[in-house]
Amino acid sequence: MKKIAVLGYGVVGSGTVEVFYRNKAALEKKAGDELDIKYILEVRDCPDERYRDKFTKNFDDILNDPEVKVVAEVIGGLKYSYGYVKSALEAGKSVVTSNKELVAAKGAELLKTAREHNVNFFFEASVGGGIPIIRPLNQCLSANEIDEIAGILNGTTNFILTKMIKEGMGFDEALKIAQDLGYAERDPSADVEGHDTCRKICILASLAFGKHVYPDNIHTEGITKITLEDVKYCESMNSVIKLIGFASRRGDEIAVMTCPAVIGEESQLAGVNDVFNAILVRGDATGDVVFYGKGAGKLPTASAVVSDIIIAAKSDHSSKTMHWEDSAQDFIIPYKKLSNRFYVRANADKKTVNDIFGEVRFLSRDGAPESECAFVTGEINEAEFEEKCGRLNVLGSLRVLDY
Amino acid sequence: MKKIAVLGYGVVGSGTVEVFYRNKAALEKKAGDELDIKYILEVRDCPDERYRDKFTKNFDDILNDPEVKVVAEVIGGLKYSYGYVKSALEAGKSVVTSNKELVAAKGAELLKTAREHNVNFFFEASVGGGIPIIRPLNQCLSANEIDEIAGILNGTTNFILTKMIKEGMGFDEALKIAQDLGYAERDPSADVEGHDTCRKICILASLAFGKHVYPDNIHTEGITKITLEDVKYCESMNSVIKLIGFASRRGDEIAVMTCPAVIGEESQLAGVNDVFNAILVRGDATGDVVFYGKGAGKLPTASAVVSDIIIAAKSDHSSKTMHWEDSAQDFIIPYKKLSNRFYVRANADKKTVNDIFGEVRFLSRDGAPESECAFVTGEINEAEFEEKCGRLNVLGSLRVLDY
């Protein structure tokens, strides 16, 4: 019999308990042992009568109970979770988490702690919700050198962009609907400013390239500046706008960025709509592999947490492969040195554009004012692009990515 | 140091050796041990000078060498592979294979043998080539009850159908091109008659539902009867024709079939073109998850074989979860009892069609002869459909599936 503790009884926590008890018999068969949830850590007074005997407000009950072998941290944030997770690992308990902020900020350290105490730190649910991506990346694609990862990693922003693209809805209106449906928080900045996507691409990059990539070092742009005019111009070149997190191997260095980008309709990422996520992994042997599914939500995320619980429960030693090192960030190419094609919308005439950017591809849309000019540049580096844009009255710009 | 033997030096075998040596240092780090290929079993005289000292024609060299811990079987077929794999497992060596015919025919037995000898039998490469699907299905989705699996599992037929759909090319011409490009065999029947797809959906169904599903018990149709007229009618209802293998839980029983089917354009399977494969898995908690990538080819398949080699090399005991039982086939619903909507093309008038099928949705296409009539039925079971078709001059029919 292996005992489990669940830290937090919010959306993912209650989902974790629900999925666990719904499929308990099948899960025990898979784990090869009896399993039960012994504690649920929650500050509120017994929010669920069914589990009355399991609730505690005192983490030490869990920490000091040698019966507890696996701790599932689903509180989120860093304030409480970091200390709980660290001390649980030090006490010889495996930890699984859905907390991307924790993994992105402290992954290397917590993986090291887990290894030192011969237990596991798993985080399948931290990226892509119910989509299996962490373990496939680590195990199934292990024969590959990973050259590139690019993903639609945030369901809220993808929902908003889908509304803008498919229904011609403005950003504010689409955000409002996302909030009404419970997809977006009252304070949506973590989503719409790209921070959530950034954390997730940092986790994937760390795993793929073996060195911790910290979010603070990654250039991150959100979707708040995107207009319906941009959507229309992109449509005219058979493309859509998606918020993309990407990490790309360039020799011994890597390029990592989070930004809204123009993606051709033939891309496997272009047809990913609403709250769905998709992650493209390009391996040197396997070519492009894409993982698609619901990137968030109570039960999908909970199912990833529970899968990790099962694997942690049946493992009697630290995973040798799920690991990356802490590292100076000098292997990350400063984003201003990166090159891309760019989509630009400006108040300018074509001659001025050509004078500044050389040959470009001009775009058109119905109802555009005389003064507006939209175009796609050739390959140009970020610093140079910024300098050139300074000489133009730019209304909006986006990177054009080939995935 | 762990030694490996590769059985067969054809396309996948030579790819396996290539991927192994290309990424050897990284693989050893992941395996936590030194690794080397000691033997390559091959009937031809040294087909590759670089590995001169590794070739043998005598399987007993491998079987009797206690240094060999992992055997990779990439011969294909059943004739030699079954005996080699069985005896390797009995000798306490783990086996990994890309051989779907072997796994579909003997999976339950070989998994049992592996377990009895505390070694592993892995087969990630047998389905979906380089797409991670076997292990994610087994591990990451383990908290789910799997309700449904549906996949485009054969690259050759998907290439042919893509040519028919996108370029209006006839079946024979498309097959010829597939053969010229090396995608289709000289004798293409295993692909175009659906047998390859059938083996793969049987493997996935066995894993998802825990009981061996034998290909001989599964209704299987190929794509040889599909015409450009059918393609056009489907286009008129925003749908495409794909060769689908599906397995679906219906209470305590399952429905399994391989057939060309009409799929709506909004489906995640509809945009899967050329030699790409995709597998949709519907879990009760996670909802729809889709895995997409190259389903065949030398390096993708080899990368899956090598990933399995790494996991087998670092494991010191039999996997507790990668398992299914042999079983009577009475949990498989006889296909004539299944219900579907059907697309039908017939020489008939609308009144006759309505008299026989009741209310249907009629379709049209440019240039259809006066006598031709195409329509989509309501939900109807296979036996009844067959009976009704007997009263009509049917030119072609396809199941309409919702994925």
Q: Which radius of gyration of chain A do the C-alpha atoms yield?
A: 23 Å
**Annotation, overall tally of beta strands of chain A:** 17
Summarize the main sheet of chain A: 11 strands, mixed
Say what oligomer this is: homodimer
Write down the CATH topology of the largest domain in chain A: Dihydrodipicolinate Reductase, domain 2
Q: Point out poorly predicted stretches of chain A.
A: none
Strand fraction of chain A: 25-35%
Distance between the termini of chain A: 47 Å
* Structural class based on helices, strands and sheet pairing of chain A: alpha/beta
Query: Which term fits the overall shape of chain A?
Result: elongated
Relative helix content of chain A: 25-40%
| Count of individual helical segments of chain A | 14
Relevant CATH superfamily of the largest domain in chain A: Dihydrodipicolinate Reductase, domain 2
Largest interface: A-B, 53 and 53 residues
- Per CATH, the class of the largest domain in chain A reads Alpha Beta
Mean pLDDT of chain A: 95
Number of domains of chain A: 3
Gross CATH architecture of the largest domain in chain A: 2-Layer Sandwich
What does this structure look like?
The structure is a homodimer of 403-residue chains. With 403 residues, chain A is of the alpha/beta class. The first copy, chain A, has three domains: 145 residues, NAD(P)-binding Rossmann-like Domain (Rossmann fold, 3-Layer(aba) Sandwich); 161 residues, Dihydrodipicolinate Reductase, domain 2; 66 residues, Alpha-Beta Plaits. Helix content of chain A is 35%, strand content 26%. The first copy, chain A, has 14 helices and 17 strands. In chain A, the strands form two sheets. In chain A, strands 7, 8, 9, 10, 11, 12, 13, 14, 15, 16 and 17 form an eleven-stranded mixed β-sheet that branches. Chain A has a six-stranded parallel β-sheet with strand order 3-2-1-4-5-6, with helices on both faces. In chain A, β5, α5 and β6 form a beta-alpha-beta unit. In chain A, α2 runs parallel beside α12 and α7 crosses α8. The longest helix of chain A is centred in the N-terminal third of the chain and has 17 residues. Chain A is elongated. The model of chain A has no long low-confidence stretch (mean pLDDT 95). Chains A and B meet through α1, α2, α6, β12 and α12 of A and α1, α2, α6, β12 and α12 of B.
